[in-house]
Records
---
Amino acid sequence: MRVRVDPEKCQGHNRCYSLAPELFDVDDYGYASAAGDGVVPPELEDKARLAAANCPEYAVIIEEG
Amino acid sequence: MAVEDWATDYDIFDPEYCADPGPIWADLRERCPIAHTERWGGSYLPTRYEDVHAMAGMVPALSNQVPIVVPPVPLTDPVTGAVIRATPHIPPISSDPPFHGPARRLILPAFSPQAVARHEPYTRELAHRLVDAFAGRGRCDGAVEYAQQIPPKVIAHLMGVDENRGDEFIEWVRGILELGATNPELRVATAQKIFAFWGAEVAKRRENPGDARGSGGVPRDDFISELLRGDLAGRPVDDEHAMATCNLLLIAGIDTTWSSIGAALWHLATHPADRERLVAEPELLPTAVEELLRVYSPVTMGRLATEDVTVDGVTIPAGSRVLMNFPAANRDPRQFPDPDTVVIDRAHNRHVAFGIGIHRCAGSNLARMEMLVALSVFLERIPEFHLDDTGAVTWCGGQVRGPRALPLIFPKA
């Protein structure tokens, strides 16, 4: 599984970062991006789904694979 | 005048709407999802999550130049005859692109999660101090003595202003938003007081930019000092922009958060099972805060249609004002199962209490931190509390909704 943040949609709500700080980074302005290469370790897959399901902008994208 | 049909004649100041708008929104959502009224100068009111989401993206067709919808009338200065804006200029909430982006980037770093964490120790100490004052009494007004006290003092702390000015902040915010909403003269008089205050704070820092706190009493690491050193699209920040931005923090950062803290305390006072669960499982608090924000969202922002806009089959003509009903969107059953129930551990919660799109509340991390600390300290110090039936709970409505009187009783500590 991979996670990414659509920079066109992210408005800096920080919901993903607060729910799954292992998987996301936020810049000085609060905008989020996937941490590292975005690959989600199996034990964090539920957290990744939770982050996606709480983004009010639908900016967190999960790629199963 | 009582409302007969909410679809064509809603009134956001009606006592029934202030006390519990949920059933009104539920009716409108099915019968007339975008309602209209001629009251208070006229406006449109969406109630579905999907519509509110779509409308937040209609920039600049739905413009932010009038975020406060009522009162509508521009006023005339009695002395000069000049037209006075009834809504103060408060960038970036009152800005559209392209100016909006730089004005927003100027303030966002002060409200990042890391920046906000710096104010947590003060907020915690303040919350304890407030509880100290009433814990031995066995009763308090949770709105006036607790919820209402926290945001103005945290904002004063953040801005490098004496926390005792917090009491005046409360009066000013009510003068603009609550009492001023239906009293334009009061709103203008209050705005003039606020500008004089920020003008003096800005001037003090301009005269003495390098002084450390304590040397001459002028702070330098506070929000206002940072603002004056900031960059606005490649240009230095002038006094006018700095004062208007200070104004934004005052208007957007105080009664909003106090309404959220107060509504959360009201919920916990009236839902003992949720209160007991949070006392037993404090690790649920961050999730609970999001859910309480969803069900008791305090803020309805305004927009102005600068062209004809069609949403959900309804055409909103150019020149119309729109109430971005984030609170109603958050109760839409199409998005939230069992929407009127607080599910303290609701896992999937795309709530829009802080708005969505480019105008997402810039202070949302600060508001969350204040709510979390306020609830965590209250529950730790006073784990068992109820409404005092001898007093009356009152809710204020309009564009910011929350309890204004919240009598609570509890075992003396």
---
Amino acid sequence: MTPIAAVNGTALAVFGVIVAVTLVISWFASKRVNTATDFWAAGRGLTGPQNGFAIAGDYMSAASFLGIAGLIYLFGFDGFMYSVGFLVAFLTVLFLLAERMRNAGKYTIADVLSYRLKQEPARAAAALGTLTVVAFYLIAQMVGAGVLIEGLVEIDFSLAVLLTGAFMVSYIILGGMLATSWVQIIKAFLLMTAAVVMTIWVLAKVSWNPIDLFTEAEGKSAEGEAYLKPGLFLSSPLDTVSLGLGLVLGTAGLPHILMRFFTVPNAKAARSSVMWAMVLIGAFYVMTTALGFGARAILGQGGEEAAGATGNGALPLLADNLGGEFFQAIIAGVAFATILAVVAGLVISASGAVAHDVWSNIVRRGQDSESEEVWVAKIAAVVIGAVAIGIAILGGEGLNVSFMVGLAFAVAASANFPALLLALTWRRFNTAGAITGVLVGVISSVALVIISPTVWPGPDSEGGLISGYDLANPGIISIPLGFIGCWLGTMLTRERVEEFSFDELYVRSETGLGAEAGTGLTLTGRSDGSREADERELVGNR
Amino acid sequence: MATTEATRTTTGSDHHPEIDWEAAERSPEFRELIRKKRSFVVPATVFFLAWYFGFVILAGYAPDFMGREFLTDGLTVGYVLALSQFVMTWALGAWYLRKADREFDPLAERAAQVALRRRDNGGTS
């Protein structure tokens, strides 16, 4: 489907090297992972910069690398709207959730949501939100990986998806969050390097004048002036705003991103990791200007057919144009590493929802052993991987990657974000509020997408299934509905005696008093005895 | 170290009933932390959302304005405003980190110490 030519031995070799290196690292990691905290949270021993790289590696998916460059190539300015939204979203994370998650949490977002609510129902709601987001996100990435590998190495799509799934599950089974963190950090280095090299190369082609990039791109687009204006891709103004809302609040509801804050020793490291991530991610998205507008300036109109309807092929084409087949293979390898790092993060967060939330805390009511929980997590990772592989192969190349990722953001913003934020800040909030909020958020965002024109395209349907409704992005309706669900559920019920008080969660999340301790495991070794615990931890030092 | 006993369970985040959380929440030290933090985070959040949605709304409803030339041919108002979002994100982030290191962390530490002292003194402080 991706129209990039020829069996590519170089690409195969690059893919092989990436897989070999990451598997070897995971194998070494497997020997150092002893406890559940090591498995879920890498022992909470990552430094701020390390976790910042890992967040960048966790966050920037194929939709960012291939997708945004492709959208800019095809539609100009509108593609860059995604870059802006994806970055600004981290201010929401930094101001509202990062430190609180670290202070109040343990392994999963359900630990924070259910802290002072009724354990089982609140956990079930959080697990539902997590699994829904991960399902859409994961399948999108698997399809992206399949298309990429099929196009570049000429392996059959199904086999490509199967291999990607097998590698992603291997990382988790071997080294849990420690291995996942390593894969994500390596990927962030590769991705940033690739982006810098391509940006410099593109700028050299336009005699180092970034402004020429725009004028040349404009000149080579059939749309002319409109190419540098908003409106080619996001044609409805309300849809643009709705997308913006989904992006800026969605990141703060992505379980695989929030889970990363449990891997650092304290709140200070959590916020510094967000800053590192913002610098890396921001720098990358600024460079999407050179990648996207550069693809237009260099490839011109000619690459449009080859880039495909979503434009995902534009970046590999640009790489081929710049540095030939060898360079294209390198870029494809980076894109592959990008996908592997993201899917590994997604699978570990989903297996957390299944093993830690559903199995240990709902089915076994906290009576199972740590080793049982980790075993269940590994089995869950295999099952989740198998299901994702199955759906990706069945749904096949027809599934639109950016659309699925957009849907994941919408669910995250409408279901997970309102419930988490209110659990941490609103005293009155209760279990019924959490459940209705998550349910309303999940159902409304999925339902609105199902009736949207994206799913019901066609000449006679200017609107979608229901006439008059033409939003492709549900955020502007489903996010308020998520908040209203939380509020209504809370106001209509009165919970009897709370088991644990809001005061405990509130003081703990703001000060770190009582926060979970690390195990001494670090990214590269183990700091026995001299564990640099947060001074405010209750466990261990007092 | 009490680590083993406290973390070798499969339940969620541990609870610490030995602390008087209600008193900790009402302590002037904690109140001051919340007040100081809020007086930064609330305006900063309102500002970044306004700046971002101002940009998004302009992109949606005023595409021609966004397509206007800015200083030189090829550079548009829209792109400059988009870049301003990056600058804003980094600047607000750096500012928050500075405030947190210098102002919020010491206050949080003090509030935590007060709660711990109350525990050690058997409820009176």
